Amino acid sequence: MARVVQKFGGTSLADIEHIRRAAQRAVAEVKAGNEVAVVVSAMAGTTDQLVAWVDEIAGRDDSAEYDSVVSTGEQISAGLFALAVESLGVPARSWMGWQVPVATEGGHGRARIQKINAADVVGDMEKGTIPVLAGFQGIGPDRRVTTFGRGGSDTSAVALASALKADRCDIFTDVEGVFTADPRIVATARKLDRITYEEMLELASQGAKVLQTRSVALAMKHRVRLQVLSSFLDTPGTLVVGEEEIVEQEIVSGIAYSRDEAKITLLKVPDRPGVAAGIFGPLADADINVDMIVQNVSEDGSATDLTFTVTRNDFGRAQEVIEANKKSLNYQSLILDSQVAKVSVIGVGMRSHAGVAQRMFQTLSEKGINIQVISTSEIKVSVLIAEEYTELALRALHTAYGLDAA
Amino acid sequence: MARVVQKFGGTSLADIEHIRRAAQRAVAEVKAGNEVAVVVSAMAGTTDQLVAWVDEIAGRDDSAEYDSVVSTGEQISAGLFALAVESLGVPARSWMGWQVPVATEGGHGRARIQKINAADVVGDMEKGTIPVLAGFQGIGPDRRVTTFGRGGSDTSAVALASALKADRCDIFTDVEGVFTADPRIVATARKLDRITYEEMLELASQGAKVLQTRSVALAMKHRVRLQVLSSFLDTPGTLVVGEEEIVEQEIVSGIAYSRDEAKITLLKVPDRPGVAAGIFGPLADADINVDMIVQNVSEDGSATDLTFTVTRNDFGRAQEVIEANKKSLNYQSLILDSQVAKVSVIGVGMRSHAGVAQRMFQTLSEKGINIQVISTSEIKVSVLIAEEYTELALRALHTAYGLDAA
Questions:
Q1: Whole-prediction pTM
Q2: Which residues of A touch B49 (CB under 8 A)?
Q3: How many independent structural domains does chain B possess?
Q4: Structural domain harbouring B112
Q5: Residue B307 within a domain
Q6: For residue B73, what are the CA distances in angstroms to A75, A260, A403?
Q7: Sheet holding B35-40, edge to edge
Q8: CA torsion A229→A232→A235→A241, rounded to 10°?
Q9: A76 CB near a chain B CB, below 8 Å?
Q10: How confident is the model at residue A345 (pLDDT cuts 50, 70, 90)?
Q11: Chain A residue with Cα closest to B91
């Protein structure tokens, strides 16, 4: 007997017929002799409507009222899911965050899970009742409803799986699993059977929107074995596990990309100590996340050019911050470019293999693609290129690293 | 300083613009120096959608999951209402039934309020924060969400007003108040300034769907002064109060009608003790509410005809029950008629005035309208007539009792 947490996303719960089919998957696990707990997102579209209403009145997403309103989406789908399970002849009951309780800290809109008291949920499972947890929500110290930010139901599922010491946490979604590259761009992309937490973290943060980054970090921390799989197919998905579970490690596991990039270059900044702090301090104060940074060596030691990237959402604000500090920063002028994309090669195997970055630079060069910025981590090499070359770069790199399906 | 509860129905909260205007009414009371608590229904249409989803899966309205799902409608409007008040510069916070708490008993779907612990709500009001209670919902002994049946937000408002010892409970709706008759039928109908609880109860149960019957009974029990008024106009509505507050009492306050009637006549039932019990026992067992009953005296003491009415919703089932018991009831045949309507003349003044019923019979007779069944209470005379005469009867009676607007 295994203990399994199943999480269903909004597209897997788009309407009553979808909910019924998802409920059948939970019932099938019980019939196979396993213990099952379910975590649900809101039905597709519901959260958007709720957020739109709040925006129309208040334009804020960090209030207790925002949380109270948007958390209803998961409350609805949890109740409907429990009814669907019961209609299949298996007992079930819904659990809202405040009922479990899922205790949170860190205020509203982006609360963090502090502790899940899973005793009652375990009680349900032990007597053959399927507990259905409304994802994305908890209860704060003031006894008000909190939420975890968009995609937070993945985090609910991983936290519950950890609290239940579950053998596996299945994340049902509208894709078959994690691919070596976006299959809509790279026709030869393959589904990966296994991938490490570290690689999945890099993939998630590089724009492969299969799992929320935070839920992967939580799974890694608590060693929760994740499976990403399709709710529409009956095939195994991709297991996200520790490195020790992967016997034969590929050097490169996948190629990711993100178009959510914008580049700002400060020309002729005085080359003296403290200039970087002078630029990035005000950006941090404005809550703007800077991703890649490159600073050239100045020719004569007096002035240099400095380039950094932010998300396109922060682009305008970042520009304002830099321009507001023009006097103290003392740069000559700005170059702004939002027509850029980031392409990344990811794999834990590159720790022990030299030449991975070199092959990337070589491949892009052969295709005539200019590299604007480079950044690396232990298991990743990322480059910034002109956006129009994105698809070309992805396909070329996919082939170059031997990832194409046979 | 007065303490006021304001309740807004679904049509008063149809969209964000409506919610904003309703919020302005709450803010206006605070600016006038009063203490205000608000109770909200779900936005128009929301509850229907939620009920439809539950029906599609389960077709049941008495489960804990039904309550958990449908109660989200009020949770959404309470949060949005609080945000709308705050956007007008006055502090506000939403309260769900489980947070107050509104303790209930009697299971799910049709729970009854046991006790409202209003201490925290009072705390809000005393510091100038407008508490916004999600109507229609409470929490059961098992710490699960319960609901009160359709229209239950009126009950929430009256119960809260009672717990707060409020000076008034304003029920904002889409009509101007309580009328002497349905103004869509009787053009000369007048809005009543005041009406007694007893009259309002009769009006509500006779089909004037302005207030939920149960909320009126609760208001009468706890002497909560109700006002029914339009959320779209700035005119006073109708006060529903005790008889002692009405100085000059009209003999007849209003004429009500209901088309939700169906008539069953059993021909030639043996005229012996126990026959009525034999008929109405099985109907009660089948949870069918019988309204009017008339039994004629038999000519020769051996057989009689017996007529009763039920709602049209129960008509088919009532017929089945009677036919299933044909052997023991030993009647000759059935006459079924759903083309009937009930017209009622209502007024506490008729307690002290004779001739009210006689005027009704006279008026209907002059218009050639046959009376099929009669039933009376202390403050009401009801007759069953052929449905096609409904409008004619209403207008004639409205004139006959001197209710026409000048």
A1: 0.85
A2: none
A3: 1
A4: 3-174
A5: no
A6: 11, 36, 50
A7: B92-95, B130-134, B35-40, B3-8, B168-173, B226-230, B238-241, B194-196
A8: 0
A9: yes
A10: very high
A11: A65
